[in-house]
Structures are given as structure tokens and as C-alpha cells.
């Protein structure tokens, strides 16, 4: 708990609802695109800590033949240690309540995974 004297020293009452509303709206808008660390975040646009909206990359379909390729692509990542292991995930889409099972691919690893899977596209051509 914070003593009343400290509370009064650190904060002040805002009388205008418009000022408060604008501040909250600005924070709401920024939180959809930026992490809670702000513009000086070491991870940059890949960081999703505290974001209001999250984007996930899920690789689905016939995965076993390309499992090793995905493992190698994830192992190259240096952003987070826990992004180096394969994570199987299940999610429910918001639009049509469809369940999807696949591999979670971190934003920082998408390009590496796509590059690693280029041989699959070459086989199909």
C-alpha cells in the first residue's frame, strides 16, 4: 500500500474527462502495435510483450516431412531461447470457430522458416 502523502506527491487529480479520455485512447491505440517497452525496445517490432493485439504464425498441414527443416530454422534464432524449440499449438479462429492445429512460428523466425522450406516449393513446381 502507498501512504496518502506519497500518493498526493506522485499523482494529481485530473478534472477534465476529455484529457483523461484522450490519454487512455492514445494508449489504447499504441498498445495494438507496440510492446510495453516502447520505441527503444531491444527486440524491436518482434516483441509482443503487453501488446493488446497479438499476431501468431501457425504452420499447419503435412508437417512431419519438413519437421527437421523447421527445427534448423528455429535453432538459428537468437531473439529468445524458448523460440528455438518447436511448439505444437491448437487455436480456435474468431471468425468461424474453426480449430487449427499446427506449429507456432515466432515472428522473428518466419523468414528463416520460409527460406528453409523453399525446397518444398521447388519440388512442387
From TrEMBL:
Stretches assigned to the SBNO alpha/beta domain: 3-52
Gene Ontology BP terms: regulation of DNA-templated transcription
Gene Ontology molecular function: any one: chromatin DNA binding
GO cellular-component term (any): nucleus
InterPro entries, alphabetized: SBNO_a/b_dom (IPR057332), SNO (IPR026741)
Domain of life: Eukaryota
PANTHER family: PROTEIN FORGETTER 1, STRAWBERRY NOTCH-RELATED
Protein's name according to its UniProt entry: SBNO alpha/beta domain-containing protein
Organism: Aegilops tauschii subsp. strangulata
Lineage, uppermost ranks: Eukaryota, Viridiplantae, Streptophyta, Embryophyta, Tracheophyta
